[in-house]
Each structure stands twice: as structure tokens, then as C-alpha cells.
Amino acid sequence: MPSYDKNVNRRDLLKGLTILPALTAGAAMAETSRPATELPPPITVPNKEGHVNRSAGTVSPDGTQVVEHARKLPVHHGRDVIVCGGGPAGVAAALAAARNGAQTTLLEVHGCLGGVWTAGMLCNILDYGNKAGIMKEIEERLAAEGNAPPTNKFTYDPELMKFVLESMCLEAGVDIRLQTRVVGALREEDSLCAVLTESKAGREAWTAHTYIDCTGDGDLGAQAGCAFDVGIDESCVCQPMSLMALVTGIDAEAITPYINVRGGNAKQALLQLLIDHGHHPSYASPSLFYIQEGLFALMANHEYGVSAFDPKAVTEATLRARKELNDIIKALHRVGGAWENVALVATAEQIGIREGRRIRGRYHITADDLREGKSHEDGICKVKFAVDVHTLTKEAGKTQGYSGHGIKVKAYDIPLRALVSKDVDNLLMAGRCISGDFFAHASYRVTGNAVPMGEAAGKFAAECYAAGKVVGEMVMS
User: Fold this and answer.
1) Which fold has domain 75-235+356-472?
2) Of 201, 327, 231, nearest to 275 (Cα)?
3) pTM of the model
4) Smaller CB count within 10 Å for the chain: N or C?
């Protein structure tokens, strides 16, 4: 590589640069042997000109409303199944539908698959141990790629999870569209006829035989006009949100008492450590999870009274949570010793939302089902996780944790009917937006259950398409 004097003129510099191709040998030489006047073949780039399907409309005289004019939208035709939301439930739904012969499109708002597992950096999967099928397959695929946490929890590197989920979907032939948000639905009588999305391509429409709502917050069901429930009662108060983070700069052996494992008191130890060094966290059970050598996940904050459907409130909650995570790292720096070099690697792109809408289905899971350990002929998975209600409101000067509210859970079934919309004949749900009451949701909402829900929904959607029937005709009465 030639060196250059800072006083060399531009002509001499360009002459010097002409020797660079000569330094590249072999195949690279062949690539540069094309005559200078010959251009490489053109690359076909869709919409390389950046055209948009522009909006038009009028603003009301008082400036409080806009009337948007009608416009024609491009339509993506011919899919058998469309899955909205590419989180744990959505990936499983898309995989199951595609593997069972259905042409399947997966629409995801973030720039990766995995939802709360990846964009949300959850890094810890609950209630997975008794699950077979795709949940077990994901665990095995992660292990094959080197995921081997030495604790008794199912933790993982979110970057590795992205790669595994996307690989599995591509292998199955799933048509993936990232950076695409569901913003509307068109309905004819009791059936969906199109889903509307927004992306860099503007507003688009997607049609399919069967649709699956895996958005977590029940966005598609709400856009389709389905009945739904929110929160604990008419107040619609939901569980608090939490923002996850990845942390480095600490040695596992040196901080073993603070690493969250089953049966330990690491949460209480970490809480006291933070309090003793000047930060009283908003969550009474801060948790540090071991991912791999030099990498940990941290969940240590609560954002109370935030609606998942209020973007301003979610924004403010995210900003507060990110500030608190930085304050926590500063407090750990003050500890010194093993914590002296602790640092944030990243905070999650998406704050963790525990509750959104619960779309009403053909069956409504209740707290009594949990107490009884209810079984169903159309059961799709067995849930063993406890009722886990993170405290709903913040009391001044008091750090809040979580409670089971005295409900003792016996292993119970989630029936397929709870995944079938009561109001729309060709709509299924999977994940935390299925049909259930507040306390039942607080048990089945964890992601080890979301995967078998998605798998069951995707398989059933493919079966309905193959039979030429809508889900409402095929489900048990």
C-alpha cells in the first residue's frame, strides 16, 4: 500500500491510486480486467426511483381533523395464510402453516423476527420444559449453534435467536416481510377479506384464505372489529412494562450470588446492592440472567399505568426506563470491585409489554380453569406456569414486585377454541392476545406457551385451507 505525503497534489495522488488494482491477485484480477468503458450489467432493483402512493386530503377549517381521500392500493394476492406479527407465536404459526403445505406470508413490524425474544431482548424463556414440537426444535437449533447457558434457565443470545428463527422460516419457505406494520383490516360480513399495512412502500393490502393475529396486542383483531378485553376490569389497568438490557464487563464467578437461578435469592441480593449504592429500582425483583461468557441480560424496571395503545405514553415509558437502566449501571459502578467495569451493551428496541388486548374467542379461559387444572378434548398445550401479576400501580416510596393473588395453578389445557375468533370466521389468534380473563392471561402469557399456540394455529389454518373451509366451520362447537 503506498504512503502519501500530505503535500502531494490531487493529480499525483490519483496517479498513485492507479497501482492499487495491481495489488489484487487471482480472481479479483479477472474482475478488474473489463475495459474501462464497459459497465457491469445493471441490477434489477424494485422501485429504485423511490415512487410512493401519495396521500391526498383536506384539513378541516378548525384544524382538528383531516379527511383523507380514497385511493387505490396495491394488493398482494393469493396467500393461503397470512400471519401478522413475527414474535414467538408468529414464527411458530408461520412455520407450522408452511410445513403443512400452505403458502404463508409473515408480516413483522421490526427489522428482525422474534418480537419480544429479539427486538425486546427478553433473553429468558418461561414454561418451555414440557413443550415438544417447534418449541423443542428452537431449543435444539440454538444449542446446535452454540447456545449452552450453564444455569438452570433457558437463556439465549438475542442475535443468535434472530439467526435461528429466520433460518427456520426461510427453510420452510415462509414469505417474510419485515418493517411492515398492520394498520387496518377490511371485513365483509363475518370474514376478513384483506389486511392493510404501512411500510416504506406506503399503504398496501394483503389477501389470504386465513389470517392469524400474533401481534401480541391484538391489533389485527381490533382492526377487524372483534370484541376484546383489556386489563383487570373496566378501568383497563394493565400490568407494568419493562425494558430489557444486555450488560457486559462482569465475571460470572465473581458475582454468582446476584445471577438469577431457580431457587435462589439473587433478586433480593441485587435489589439490596442497588439500594445500598444509591438507586432504589422501580421493580422489587431486579433480575440478572447469564447468557454466555461476558454477557448478561438485565430486567430491573417497571413502568406503571401505561397503555400499549398510546404511542406517546409508550414513548415516555421507554425514555424513563432507559434512563433508569443507565442509573442502575452507574449505581453498580459505585459498588466497585467485580462491578467496576460493568457496562450496557444495548437496551431493547421495544419495551416489554405484558398486556394488550385479549380477543374474544369461541372459548374464554378463566382463573377457575387454572384452579381446576381443566383439560379439553381440543387442548393444544399444557400450561404449568403460575399466575404472575406484576403490581399494577406504583405506591409512593415503595418498590413493587409481583404476586399470584392466591391462585394455585394446576396444569391446565389451552383449547384450540380460545384461539378462534368469536366474531370473524377466518381469524385465529396466538400468543398473549388469545381469549382469556386477566388472571388466566397472567399465567399463559409467557413465551414458552406462545410457541405451541402459534404452532397449533398455523397447522389448523393450513388444514382449513386444504379442506376449503374457514376456521369457524372446522372448530369444535
Assistant:
1) FAD/NAD(P)-binding domain (3.50.50)
2) 327
3) 0.90
4) C
